[in-house]
Amino acid sequence: MEECDDKSTAIATIADIDLPRGRQDDEIVTPPPDGGYGWVCVAACFAVNCFSWGIVASYGVYLSHYLNSGIYPEASSIDFALIGGFNFSMAMLAAPLVTFLTRKFGIRFTMTIGVILLSGGFIAASFANRVWHLYLTQGLLVGLGVGFNYIPSMAVLSQWFEKKRSLANGISSGGSGIGGAVFSWATQAMIDRLGLAWALRVTGIITFVGNMTAAILMRDRNHHIRPTQFAFDTRLLRRYDVLLLLSWAIISMLGYITILFSLPDFAMSIGLSRAQATDIVGFLNIGTAVGRPIIGIWSDRYSRIDVAGLLTLLCGLCCFAFWLPATSYGLTVFFALIIGGIVGVFWMTIGPLCVEVAGLKELQSLLSLAWTSIILPTTFSEVIALKLRRPGSSREYLYPQIFAGLSYIVASLFVLELRRVKRRDRQKCG
């Protein structure tokens, strides 16, 4: 019985398993209201995703422009890949500091810093005339801004919802799809009509308004839950189920970044126009906006671990079934729509999965570890993909396509093992 008591937080799924009446050490004293002001927080988190990850998702348009315009002649394709990777890795690198500041000063203070960094990064990038300026602005500042906005908000919805936890997270993460679609088409249009500099400035202004509104509306329930909020809780790293979850996160990110950033240039490599390449990014994000809330409903109805594992495997299979043979606009659009709904499985499931593994009280501490674990893959995934290209070949992106597909398939094996471990533990303590 002692082993079961020690692991009760990890085993208990709030939505699916009733905790013993006397156990309140690892879970909340007051249960989530499953609504009320929580829906305002869903709208605020939706806006955060829209005006942070949604904008980052449109970086493929900038990447394609940088690669084909020669605007920075001293830069290589690796430079532009790293700048896009910084949008993710710097956000994750900031996680321990963001977790500390949120515990110390509250969620609104931390998010306001993010608003300033994110919008300031885009506006400052509009004045860049050397590639290292882009590293500091569109890479470093934008990445830190995303982290300071997104990371404090990530744990909020799980505090407000229990039975509808995955649905709330699915709706929220769908904001990145809406933002990605709108900003992909809008960014290309602004570059064509206003020029690169003004495209960056307008984006910076819009992100300021959207994210500041979200920061004002956001409200957590820390006073009810009393979360640990450790910036780097090494105690959790001693647990096998936590290591499985983090391994899934690391490897799936290799495939995610490769698909997200490579699709526009892949489209041009098979002879599509720049406008069609932009459409591909837009359709991918439409798939994201439609697919994530639906997947949230499935996750609440069925096992969250099972759904995450199945989606991860499907991502890998879709790369081989649809992306590899894609040589036309129609099939590439079809792949973008299908993969868009499932490719970001990490972002929409990581919050509920952390609760499944470690409990609500440890949620923010485990999330901080998750963000830290994906720093390297988000930084270097696209670098690896561009190195794997075969420029001049009729199948230029063959190896990046295989790399992305295999990454997801291997990642799904870790979720399969996590499923086995959790079932074994439930049977032990059942």
Automatic annotation (TrEMBL):
Transmembrane parts of this sequence: 37-60, 80-102, 109-128, 134-155, 167-186, 198-219, 240-263, 307-326, 332-354, 398-418
GO MF assignments: transmembrane transporter activity
Subcellular location(s) per record: Membrane
Protein keywords: Membrane, Transmembrane, Transmembrane helix
Topological category with respect to the lipid bilayer: Multi-pass membrane protein
GO cellular component, one term: membrane
Gene3D superfamilies to which the protein is assigned, alphabetical: MFS general substrate transporter like domains
Family: Belongs to the major facilitator superfamily. Monocarboxylate porter (TC 2.A.1.13) family.
Protein's name according to its UniProt entry: Major facilitator superfamily domain-containing protein
Naturally occurring in which organism (per UniProt): Lipomyces tetrasporus
Lineage, highest ranks first: Eukaryota, Fungi, Dikarya, Ascomycota, Saccharomycotina
